[in-house]
Amino acid sequence: MKINTKIRYGLRMLVFLAQNNDVVNTEILGKKMAVSPKYLRKLAGPMEKAELIVSIQGKFGGYKLKKKPSEILISDIFNAYNESLHISGCSKESGCPLSDECITSNLWEHFENIVSNKFFNISLDRIINNNFS
Question: What is the pTM of this model?
């Protein structure tokens, strides 16, 4: 299982914005994340559409969170980029051609549900506070 680069950088961006609790200039944000301002804009588009962040134009512009860190979940980030999480690659959702006739596919679906339900409900504030219990 490998998490999409957009998801990883998008999460980093949201965590950084949450820690600063204000508008963060694109240049500063790019330096902190080690990405170009152009790539930041590419990351920001889907998150703006999902209403996770807002873009502030002008000399003192940049990005800031649109919601409180406690209201933004990992699932929101995946949804913003229209991504899903398939851990085993062996379930109906992951497209396994044998899933209809394989008795273990139900086990793998159960496993994915357990992990994704716990993982997707982690909020930005829990990430910042390192609280995963």
Answer: 0.83
